[in-house]
Amino acid sequence: MINIEILISLLGGYLLGSIPFGLLLARMAGQGDIRKIGSGNIGATNVLRTGRKDLAVLTLLLDAGKAGVAALIFAAVFASPAGLIAGGAALIGHCYPVWLKFKGGKGVATYFGVLLAVYWPLALLAGALWLMSVFVSRMVSLAGISMAACVPVAAYFMGAQRVAVLCLVLGVVIILRHRENITRILAGTEPKIGDKNP
């Protein structure tokens, strides 16, 4: 792959990933700026705090979809490595969007979108890990962190070395985006599903 293809894949993926669907949908639905409620995040979990489950589900699908679309488009235009690069760049764009002063989401839904596009069996495994962690801990944040830590190892043992490298890089980003959650988890103050005031 020549350098121009790498640059185009990075830029295209980043720009697609940086579209803040949660923020846009909440505003269009008259819910205001979701950065001013709950965690201040632009992702589906914080959109859910508006009370609009429909908006939260749509945000989840669009945040995952934008990364998957980025990976598929650039894999088709150039080659498989370009899809990995664009999908990874989309997650970076979601977490650090230039339009929002680089303060975006935490990347879990976008991560699933990348995995579905580049190696769907791994996406199924990641989903199972996430669900199991949610069931045991009742903490969405811990589920995302656990999944991000385990998936690169799983990808490696599944024989997908390139995907494993991508997952390792993106997993580090996701864990860094959950720094505050990790602090609360260790302190025993992280909200759980079912709490009255999440």
Report the helical percentage.
Answer: over 70%
Low-confidence stretches: none
**Which structural class is indicated by helix and strand composition?**
mainly alpha
> How many discrete domains?
1
Beta-strand fraction estimate: under 5%
Number of helices: 10
N-to-C SSE string, H for helix and E for strand:
HHHHHHHHHH
- What's the overall average pLDDT, rounded? 91
Instruction: Please state the CA-atom Rg, rounded to the nearest Å.
Output: 16 Å
How many β-strand runs? 0
Key terms:
single chain, 198 residues, 72% helix, mainly alpha, 0% strand
Short description:
The chain has 198 residues and is mainly alpha-helical.
3D architecture notes:
The protein has ten helices and no strands. It has helices spanning 3-17, 21-28, 44-48, 53-77, 80-95, 108-118, 120-137, 140-157, 161-177, 179-187. α2 packs across α4 and α6 packs antiparallel against α9. The longest helix has 25 residues, at 53-77. The protein has one domain (3-187). The mean pLDDT is 91. 72% of the residues lie in helices and 0% in strands. With 198 residues, it is an all-alpha fold. It is globular, with a radius of gyration of 16 Å.
List the helices and strands and how they pair.
Layout: H1 3-17, H2 21-28, H3 44-48, H4 53-77, H5 80-95, H6 108-118, H7 120-137, H8 140-157, H9 161-177, H10 179-187
Helix pairs in contact: 1-4, 1-5, 2-4, 4-5, 4-6, 5-6, 5-9, 6-7, 6-9, 7-8, 8-9
